[in-house]
C-alpha cells in the first residue's frame, strides 16, 4: 500500500466503521504490515489491525500521562472517564490532549459524543476536534512507519539485523578474530555465549562480527532475536519492571516469523520447535539471541536451541554465565585495556567537536577508578566539558563501589544537567521502535517546537543518551537499554513515590 494512501480521513473512517459495526472500506487491510500474520480473511485482518492500533494508542497515551506526572489509569466508569479527560486537558500538554482525545473518542470502552468530550475537556468542540485530528495524525504516522518498514524488509537480506549500537569501536580486533575461530569450529548443538556486565559491549561486538563481509558470505541468513523487540517489532517497556522478561514461547514465535513460518506461531510449542528444526536444516543460518538474561526461562531455552536449532551457528549475549551447560563455549568480554580506554575517551570527546585536553595522569586516574567500561567512558566523555575531570574522579571515589553504582551516578549527573525539553524528549524514546526512528517521526511524537526539538536531540546526542545509526540513508536514533532501565527504575519510580506521598 502506498504511504500517501494512509491519511487521516482513511484511518478515521476505518475507526468510525468499526464503532458502527459496518464492514466499511478495506483499503488499510491491504497493508504489507498485515501480511506477516497467519491469516487472510478480511474480518481477521480488520481485527488484527484494530488490535495493533488499540495497543499503540493505549500504550502511547499512558506513557504520555506518566511523562506529565499523571498515573497510568484506565477509567472504569463514566464519572472516572470524565475526570480523567479533564485532568488530561488541564496540563497544558498538547500531545497529551491529542492522545486523550483519540483514546476517549475511539478506543475507550466508555462512549462519548464529540460535544460531551469537549465539555469534559473544558474546550469548545472545534478545539477538541483539532486535538483529535492531531491524535489521528500520530496514528497515521505509526501506520506509515509500519508500512515503510514492511516494504523495506522485503528487499533486504539482513532484514533481521538491528542497527549498530556504535559509531566507532576500539580494542575489538583481536576479539573478533578469536570469536570467528570459535564460531567456525562449532559442532551441531554447540553454542557460543558472549558474556559480560552491562555496558561492556557484548551486543556491539556480536553485531560487528556478523556484519563482516567474510561472515556474511558463509551464511544464507542471519536470525536475530532481541529483548528490545516485541513480536510486532515495537518497543513495549514496562515501567514496573527493570527488565521485560520473555519466555521460550515468545522467542520461538519470533524465530518462526523470521524463518517465514508465521503459520507456526499459534501452534503448540512442540510443533513449532519441530518446524523450526526442519527449516533451519535446509539453509546455513547464523542465529543470535541478544540479552538472554531478560528471558524468563533461559534454562529451557538454551537446551531447546541446542536441540532444535543444532544446524545453526548460535551466538548468545548475556550478563549471566551459561557455564552450567556443557555444550556452551563461554566467551567473556573483558574491560578495555588502558590504551584502548584512553583512545575511546579521546574519540568520544573529539566526536563532539571539542579538544581533548585531559592530562595523561588524569586519564590514568579516571580509568583506574572507573575501569574500562565502554558505555561508562562514553557517558564521562559527555561531561568533561561541564565539570573538571578531577571533580568527576573525586565524586566517583566517594560514591559506592560496583558497576551498577557507576552507571546510576553517571545517569543522575547527566539527568540533572538536562533541560526540561531534553528530559521530555528522552521519555519520548520509550514509546518508539527500540531499533530506532528517524528524526522527523521522533519530532512528531515529541510535540516539541522545531528549534527546541533540534536543540534537545543534540543535547541527548552530546550526552551519549542516544545512539545514531549513520549506516542507512536516513539516520535513525534510539536509546541504550541501560538508559531505558535508568528511566524506568530511577526516574519513573521516584515520580510514582512522590505521587503516592502527595
Give a structural overview.
The chain folds into 4 domains: 3-153, no CATH class; 173-332, Rossmann fold (3-Layer(aba) Sandwich); 338-415, Helicase, Ruva Protein, domain 3 (Orthogonal Bundle), CATH 1.10.8; 420-501, Winged helix-like DNA-binding domain superfamily/Winged helix DNA-binding domain (Arc Repressor Mutant, subunit A), CATH 1.10.10.10. Mean pLDDT is 83; it is low at 153-157, 229-244 and 497-502. It has helices at residues 8-20, 42-67, 78-88, 94-107, 114-121, 125-153, 173-184, 202-210, 213-216, 248-258, 269-280, 298-308, 338-351, 360-370, 374-381, 389-398, 403-415, 420-428, 439-446, 450-462, 481-501; strands spanning 191-195, 221-226, 285-290, 313-318, 328-332, 437-438, 466-469, 476-479. With 502 residues, the chain is of the alpha/beta class. It is 53% helix and 8% strand. The chain has a 5-stranded parallel sheet with strand order 2-3-4-1-5, with helices on both faces. Strands 6-8-7 form a 3-stranded antiparallel sheet.
DSSP strand tally: 8
CA-CA gap between termini:
50 Å
Q: Indicate the radius of gyration in whole angstroms.
A: 24 Å
Structural class: alpha/beta
Order of helices and strands: HHHHHHHEHHEHHEHEEHHHHHHEHHEEH
The chain-level mean pLDDT equals 83
Largest sheet: 5 strands, parallel
| CATH 2nd-level architecture of the largest domain | 3-Layer(aba) Sandwich
Strand residues, percent: 5-15%
Can you identify the CATH superfamily of the largest domain?
P-loop containing nucleotide triphosphate hydrolases
- Total of helices: 21
Report the uncertain regions: 153-157, 229-244, 497-502
Number of domains: 4
